[in-house]
Amino acid sequence: MHNLIIAYKIPELEKRNVLSEARNLFKSNVLNEEQWDKIQTEFATNLYTPSFIMRVLLFIVSLIGMSTIMGPIGLIVGDVGETGYRLLSFLLGISLLVFTEKILMKDKFHYKSGVTEAGIYAGLSFIAFALLGSKSHSLLVYPVVGFLLTAFAAIRYLNLTALVLTIGFFGWILFQVLSDIGGVAQALMPFIFMISFGLIYRESKKIRVKLSAEFLNDQFMILQTISLVLFYLAGNYFVVRELSIKMLGLTLSENQDIPFAFVFYGLTVLVPIGIIYWGIKHKSILLIRVALLTIALSVITFKYYFSLGMPVLTITVSGAILIIVALLLLNYLKQVRNGYTREKLLDNKWSSPDIMVVVASQTLGGNSNSGSASEDNLFGGGKFGGAGAGGNW
User: Fold this and answer.
1) How many whole angstroms separate alpha carbon 199 and alpha carbon 233?
2) Are both 267 and 199 inside the same structural domain?
3) Fewest Cβ atoms closer than 10 Å to its Cβ: which of 136, 252, 282, 311?
4) Is-contact 233 189, C-beta < 8 A?
5) Is 11 exposed, middle or buried (0-12, 13-18, 19+ CB in 10 A)?
């Protein structure tokens, strides 16, 4: 199923993901050099991904090369009218996507090399121009087309930038639809946004479990993080008040507050508390980090509207309190308590336990699909059940 949806070869993506996670374990001294060498041999991949700087350079050079080619093509075609230019733009966009996928990704094994991004972005831009070239479209057409194109790139090519844009376009569509309806729908907009992004977060977790594709970890992490942040922002008092004034035309007198202000005050406080409680309960570093961000935003929100008139004193006292809390927590977590410790156990805190089981099963317990680890291994007594299976370290 994955092979039909994703342009890259799935076995190569899986190998690359195992190598990436194993590299983090090696840097964290969980794996020794012999085990790391064995994993590199076992999961060698043909995917080509240069360094970040090289990717940026390849991206820029590719765009320059494509613009150089497009100039002569425009001169050859001449004046073919608006319809002709839109048709030509559509064909160029499709051609760029096909070339990027068939030649670069499948034949040359490029994986987010900078050249692939240039081909994807340029191809989508040409297609968007072809579809949106006319000025007679309603405002809703633009986010709909943007959503469809970026969602295609996010799913088909695993492009993280396109994924972020897809979420943004979805929010734009939701806002535009509710604004056009007006009335009750517009009044309930914050709650509809909270429900929508709350459902996206919940369903993405379910889909993540069903897919069992470790190479999609980054995609789901970004989707869930942005969904949680937008869930909070939809109920944040500052966001609701300012957007109501600037984008929905709400007029308030000097001492007047927005309708149901107490509800949004409550959400500004309770949502971060709920997220951090859920994150601590389920030991989710993603939830905890999002909770810390939302707590900071809540403090800024209340500070913006309710000031004691002594900003220097407020900042000093707040900083002192945070330092004291941090020191108390560091001292409290010297020992492992309920699964928490202050020590950085892994080089990459986002590591997946499923991948660690795969790595361990390929190094500590050989290539067999089942069996117990020997007492000489680093994690004595642990049981490994092969790829995707649970295990005790």
Assistant:
1) 15
2) yes
3) 136
4) no
5) exposed
Q: Confirm whether 250 is domain-assigned.
A: yes
Residues 299 and 221 in one domain: yes
CB count in 10 Å sphere of residue 166: 23
Q: Is residue 271 part of a domain?
A: yes
For 370, the domain range is 1-46+352-393
Cα radius of gyration (the chain) = 26
Query: How many domains does one find in the chain?
Result: 2
Point out the least confidently predicted range of 19-28, 247-256, 351-360.
351-360
CB 365 within 8 A of CB 380: no
Q: Look at residue 77 in the predicted model and tell me its pLDDT.
A: 65
Provide the CA 238 distance to its chain's centre, in angstroms: 25
pLDDT band at 21 (very low <50, low <70, confident <90, very high): confident
The 10 Å CB-count burial string (b at 16+, else e) for 372-392 is: ebeeebebeebbbebbeeebe
Asked, for residue 28, whether it belongs to a domain, the answer is yes
- Running DSSP on this structure, what letter comes out for residue 375? T
Amino acid identity, position 314: T
Are 221 and 297 part of one and the same domain? yes
The tens digit of pLDDT for each residue in 166-206 reads 999 999 999 999 988 888 888 899 999 999 999 999 999 99
Q: How does pLDDT run across 328-365, given as a tens digit for each residue?
A: 888 877 877 777 777 766 655 444 444 444 444 444 44
The values of phi and psi at residue 152, to 5°, are -60, -45
User: In the listed set 247, 282, 306, which residue is the last one of a domain according to the structure?
Assistant: 306
Q: Which of 306, 341, 373 is the last residue of a domain?
A: 306
CB 262 within 8 A of CB 296: no
CA 125, CA 145: separation in Å to the nearest integer? Answer: 11
pLDDT given at position 255: 75
Considering Cα of 232, then 197, then 138, then 125, what sign does the dihedral take?
positive
Rounded mean pLDDT of 205-230?
90
Per the prediction, the chain carries an average pLDDT of 82
Q: CA 325 from chain center: how many Å?
A: 30
377 lies in a domain?
yes
212 and 272 in a common domain: yes
Query: Does one domain contain both 296 and 358?
Result: no
pTM of the predicted protein model: 0.80
Q: Which two tokens stand for residue 106?
A: 């499948």
